[in-house]
Specification:
The protein is 35% helix and 10% strand. It is α/β, with parallel strands linked by helices. The protein has a domain at 58-191. Strand 2, helix 6 (161-172) and strand 3 form a beta-alpha-beta unit. The termini are far apart.
C-alpha cells in the first residue's frame, strides 16, 4: 500500500513540477480583442450592436429607391388623422393602382431596418428618404392629406415631413409637372403645382 502511495505521489509530483508541463504554452482562444466588452443586441447599452449606423446622405439614399414616372404618392396626416398611409394606399388602389408610397419603393425592403432601433435615428432616416423620393419623382405626383381651407390648397402642418422635406423638393423639381392634393374623406382633388 505504501508503495502504491509513493508511486502515485511521484506521478503527481512529476506532472505538477515537470518543466515540460509548466513550460508548455496553454492554448489561447482565437477572439477579437476589440469586441471583448461588446454588449449583446437588445441590451440597451449605447455600444450594443443595436446602435444604428450613420444616416445615409441624400445621394446614398437615392440608390436604394426604385421610382418610375407618374407613380409617386405622398401622404401626411392632419389633426383628424386623415391622410394616413392606409388612406393613401386605399385611394391609390381605387383610383391609380400603379402609384406607390415610400414603403413600397425600396429596392431592398430590409435596407431601412437598421434605423428602426432608435426613434430619433428613424425620424432622421425617413426625412432623408422622403426627400430622396421627392427629388426622384417625375410627372404627376399625388399627396393624400386632410381637407384644405386655403383656396390654393397649400395649407398643412408646417412641421410635417411633407412641409419640411417633400413639398420643398417637389416644388423645385423640374421633372414634376403636377402635384395633386387629395382629400381621402371626400375624394376631392386640387392641383397645387
Amino acid at each position: 500500500m505504501l508503495l502504491k502511495q509513493a508511486f502515485a505521489s511521484a506521478i503527481i509530483s512529476f506532472f505538477i513540477f515537470s518543466s515540460d508541463v509548466v513550460g508548455s504554452p496553454l492554448p489561447v482562444p482565437d477572439i477579437d480583442v476589440d469586441h471583448v466588452f461588446d454588449h449583446p443586441p437588445g441590451s440597451g447599452h449605447p455600444h450594443s450592436s443595436n446602435h444604428p449606423p450613420p444616416i445615409p446622405t441624400l445621394s446614398e439614399m437615392m440608390h436604394h429607391l426604385n421610382i418610375h414616372r407618374d407613380e409617386s404618392m405622398f401622404h401626411t396626416c392632419d389633426l383628424n388623422k386623415q391622410g394616413t398611409c392606409k388612406d393613401t394606399r386605399k385611394w391609390a388602389k381605387d383610383h391609380h393602382p400603379t402609384y406607390e408610397v415610400l414603403g413600397q419603393i425600396w429596392i431592398d425592403q430590409d435596407y431601412q431596418k437598421p434605423w428602426h432601433v432608435e426613434e430619433e435615428a428613424s425620424k432622421k432616416f425617413f426625412d432623408v428618404a422622403s426627400q430622396a423620393m421627392a427629388r426622384m419623382s417625375s410627372g404627376t405626383v399625388y399627396v393624400v392629406m386632410g381637407p384644405w381651407k386655403q383656396k390654393d390648397g397649400k395649407d398643412w402642418y408646417d412641421q410635417s415631413v411633407w412641409a419640411r422635406k417633400e413639398w420643398p423638393e417637389l416644388e423645385k423639381n423640374k421633372e414634376v409637372k403636377s402635384v395633386i392634393r387629395v382629400n381621402p374623406a371626400t375624394g376631392e382633388t386640387i392641383d397645387i403645382k
